[in-house]
Amino acid sequence: MSDEVDTGNGSSEEISEYSVSNRLPAVNKKLEESGHNAFANPVEFYKTVMMDGKDTSARLHTVFQKYIQSKDPKDKTVFRMQLISPFWEHMGAVARSYAGSPSPSKKYALRFGILHPSLLTPELRDFFAKIVDGSFQDLSIYYLDEWVKFVGLGKIRASTTDEAPVKRGNTTGHLNALLDKASGKAEGNKSLLLEKNLERGRLEENLTGMAQYICKHDENFIFPKVSDTYTEEQKKNLQDLQDIAKSLLRIDREMASLLKELNEALEESGKLKDKLDEEIANSAVSTSDGAVAGIDLGAIDTEFGSVRQMAKMTIGRQGNAFPILTTEFFRCQPATTGTKENILGLLAWIESIDSEVFHRAYKGKPNRIVPYVIMLPTYGDYGICWEPYDKRNKATSRGRIAIPMYPKNLTVAVLTAVADLRWQVAKEIASYYWMEEGLTGNYYQWFQAQKLKGDVKMFFIQDYIMWLTKESEGTQKLPKEVRSTFWRYMPFPQSLKEKLKDRNLIYQELYQKDLNRAMSDGY
């Protein structure tokens, strides 16, 4: 997969020009002015992290000592590979402990993959100490320590997987799915209500203007004491008022229905939340091995198994699977490290160009659903989509994407995750017809016609990157058929389309096709 991308996260001018208002908030602070002192004593930091999990810490410590003391490059390579499994196993134990006792050392070990701060230069330690803590949680962008804790608290459903063991007799997963569905229904109804409210406002404004116009009469020259009769235009407005009144009554019925459904969904969410809290408390109290009230350790264990699979997928077969953060392998700059702020900026840039990237239909209307973003402390180069949405709640549930924090190119890492999400959502919604209809169908048919070999999704991801980074700037890099498919099914904002049509005949023809489809009502 190519990672030759000219853009970082787009200039602020580019983002503001094409973005839709109230999408993703601007980042006002990327780093703290002064950092914390959690890395000041590397030995104490290491001891605190190694306190959890007697067996796992002993295995990890043994191999880690061999690794740092080794002088022979070949031996060091062997020990580096041997560290992978013990590290992940011990981090699972740290995750269990951190959920109930959130110490800074455990937090940063989980969040950044820092086992011993001495493996980092003083400059890098200072950089990681200045990364903003706990920002943008409301946007569902999570560091690993936050993610596993929210799963343990039952606030987020554990990720589905065929490989991670599921704890029998635990109903939190089912309750979480029901809660997600009820919450999603509430959010979907809120979105539709806002849309209906705007539509009603526009109609009422038209109605007021028409009424004022109708009530204005010229002087009657034949009998001045009586105002003149309605003009032909006023008579037409009187007829139009009847149509507006019917539309307003229709919208009122729809809003009443949506408000009723919203109230029911909110009540159901409240009841399910109470049940879930009770279940988690009972599960934690009855669990041995250091259980803490309110924390489902079984859910954390299950989720950490999924997280480890996600990490492997971001790294790939040829990547660097070493799980510990060290200066030796860290290759990022502050602006290209996978912090929340940097990833938020990239997501905003992507949505400013692919404006429907997070849209799914709800009751026939587009509903914007930003996916959960899990940030993994790996040296992987590609983001992934773990789930396009909950299979039991296709309409309103959030998808899940995972992004490596230390890639060669953060822009590519985020783009691959979003492209993967784009493909999987379109494919799942098309169901049996994914090779025939819509985005995936048109792309697949072109893929077959070209007699290309390999994974069609990987070709799509590469082309998506070109669509966002090159074609959006007017540089033709895609085949004609692919460009036409993307133009229709992943459209640029109208303002960007109009800018491109004036730049090149190719885009002008695509723009004209839009107009033709709109006129024939076939778009």
How is this structure best described in words?
This protein is mostly helical. The chain folds into three domains: 12-158 and 296-402, no CATH class; 174-282, Helix Hairpins (Orthogonal Bundle), CATH 1.10.287; 434-520, no CATH class. The protein is built from 18 helices and six strands. The chain has a four-stranded mixed sheet with strand order 1-4-6-5, with helices on both faces. A two-stranded antiparallel ribbon has the order 2-3. α1 (12-18) crosses α12, α5 runs antiparallel to α11 (297-315) and α13 crosses α15. The radius of gyration is 28 Å and the shape is elongated. Residues 6-22, 163-170 and 285-291 have low confidence and may be disordered.
Mean pLDDT: 85
Please provide the count of β strands.
6
Helicity level: 55-70%
Could you tell me the strand content as a percent range? under 5%
Order of helices and strands: HHHHHHHEHHHHHEEEEEHHHHHH
* Oligomerization category of the chains in this entry: single chain
Count of structural domains:
3
What summary fits the major beta sheet?
4 strands, mixed
The whole-angstrom Rg is 28 Å
Structural class: mainly alpha
Shape: elongated
**Which stretches are low in confidence, meaning pLDDT under 50 for 5 or more residues running?**
6-22, 163-170, 285-291
The count of helical stretches stands at 18
Largest beta sheet: what is the strand line-up? 1-4-6-5
Distance between the termini: 33 Å
